[in-house]
Amino acid sequence: MSSLALAARDSSTMLRRNLLHARRYPSLTLNLLLTPVMLLLLFVYIFGDTMSAGISGGGRSEYIAYIVPGLLLMTIGSTTIGTAVSVSNDMTEGIIARFRTMAIHRPSVLIGHVVGSVLQCVMSVILVGAVGVAIGFRSTGATALEWLAAFGLLVLFALALTWIAVGMGLVSPNAEAASNNAMPLILLPLLSSAFVPVDSMPGWFKPIAEHQPFTPAIETLRGLLLGTEIGHNGWLAVAWCLGLVILGYFWSTSKFNSDPK
User: Fold this and answer.
1) Can you state the angle between helices 60-92 and 107-134, rounded to 10 degrees?
2) What is the pLDDT of residue 62?
3) Most buried residue, 63, 141, 197, 223, by most Cβ within 10 Å?
């Protein structure tokens, strides 16, 4: 077999391994998935009327349309925390040391984690999106091309956060530390335009909300699904994603190749 065929075979084997782990131990994914679902229900049914009146003067349905794009991206951040924990477990429980004694394509270990995490992110987004549709979310006027672009953005964003989460898992001494280190992936959406417009925030806080990856991604996804203005946010979102992919990839591979464990 060629080296490329061997790499593809080993990567698919590692992918199956990670998907089997996720299937056999679903509690971590379900616990992380509950956070965006609970926030969706909380902000719609408890704060919905008040928040919608403050933002647009409309009703609860307008606020559902406003927050669902942000919560879809928050779902990705939540799911990738499980990736950091899984990678940390592999590094600390000795399985990586065993893999390194075997004749396998070394990057396939990380590739299996990354592809498996992206697939889990997509499934989680579908589930949270289904909850959003069930309580009243509707995409108004989005064309097939815009739906395709929205899906592409979600996959690219999942890939970016997954590589960052893999790096966090590699540098963490244990699973608990990995979970704590990855918490910014779920906290950053709370400091973005997910729940309120950036213009309504205090002047000292606006730069925090504007200069982070979630806000341009949320505004781009919101524009694609709801037909609102995207402006420069589309390019910013793609730039953030590509930058995080490159950073996460080189950070993760460097740490993985140099770690003696």
Assistant:
1) 160
2) 82
3) 63
Q: Is 123 exposed, middle or buried (0-12, 13-18, 19+ CB in 10 A)?
A: middle
Report in angstroms the alpha-carbon separations of 51 from 61, 160, 163, 187. Answer: 11, 31, 34, 20
With cut-offs at 50, 70 and 90, classify the pLDDT of residue 55. Answer: low
Tokens representing residue 96 in the block: 């990586």
Q: What percent of the chain has pLDDT over 70?
A: 90
> What tokens does 251 get?
């950070």
The pLDDT tens digits for 84-110 are 988 888 888 877 777 777 767 777 888
Q: Is 82:33 a contact under the CB 8 Å cutoff?
A: no
d(CA 137, CA 67): 9
Buried residues in 9-37 as b, exposed as e (16+ CB within 10 A): ebbeebbebbeebbeeeeebbeebbebbb
| Nearest C-alpha neighbor of 112 from the set 5, 1, 19 | 19
How far is residue 60's CA from residue 45's CA, in Å, rounded to a whole number?
A: 8
Among 19-33, 37-51, 109-123, the range scoring the smallest mean pLDDT is 19-33
